[in-house]
TrEMBL record:
Domain (SsuA/THI5-like): residue spans on this chain: 59-258
Keyword Signal set for record: yes
Upper taxonomic lineage: Bacteria, Bacillati, Bacillota, Bacilli, Lactobacillales
One of the protein's GO biological processes: alkanesulfonate transmembrane transport
Protein name: Glycine/betaine ABC transporter substrate-binding protein
Chief localization: periplasm
Key word Repeat present: no
Amino acid sequence: MKKWRKIIILGGLVLCILSACVKKEPSETSEGLPKAINIGMIRVPNDKQVAISMKQFDEYFQNRGIETKFLFFDSGVSANQAFASGSIDFAEMGYTNAVVALSKELPVELIWLHDVLGENEALVVQEDSEIQRVKDLKGKKIATPFSSTSHFSLLKALEEEGIQEDVTLLDMETADIVAAWERKDIDAAYTWEPTLSRIKETGRVITTSADLAAKGHMTTNVDLVRKGFSEKYPDLVVDYLACLTKGQEYYTKDPNAAATMVCQDLNITKEEALTQMEASKWLTPEEEISADYLGTNQAPGQFHQVFIDTIDFLIEQKSITERPTDTAVHQFINSSYAEQLVVRK
């Protein structure tokens, strides 16, 4: 019995020694920077994709020993799940999913507006359908990803015609929309690129997010950052926005060159890339912090009210159950990083 006890004790000592000899991979570089940054993306030709194709993230991060990992998300729903698990540091999404993130008290903050959506989100009906206008959708089946900018725009379009209670709405991811469309299981769909181009091949557009924006229903894609990251590395958040700005500036200077660059990474044609890029408004850092958009932390811009109105909309739709306060909204929308970027420029 004593012999076995000695063996057990000696075995334990060996395990302890081996454990002590195994070095854990450090999460930071010797300069106190993160070894890797996980960035969520939605794979559309916007400022982020141009910056990726230009290797801007390599210039700002990889050359400082920081690896940038890009993760594709089909929707903001899955991006929020990744934020909840702490597995990503940044992610872009439709701003309605940012409302959901705030409602669920995810540890994130909104730092950037990628673009104001226009004709790159639209309501499409089957080509052989007799539907000619939104009002004709009464009694029809319409698919859209719930809690998305497309969902918001669709319901606003239906409300404009007073038929929001007279249609069947189906919650579908973009890939499922394409499959249902090809089977003709649905009469219409409100979605974004590149799914939009797929269904437009056998469909007709009857309204777009540009049409709805003209009626006061602005929608936009935004970028969120995990608070654990932004609180520890605020300068890197500004660097991240600087990368996005490089993409915006390159596109503004030469749209054709930018489209040629991103089309290869997105596996679409140059014409498709350019069409999608021209369908939305890309904001400069100065526009980001203007009264029309984010504003500043001291003087919130128009987007704050859009965000608050959308909270009420999602409460009505029962997409969220907890209503964040206006104060919580102003704290959630943190324009200080964009302000620092403007000062840096």
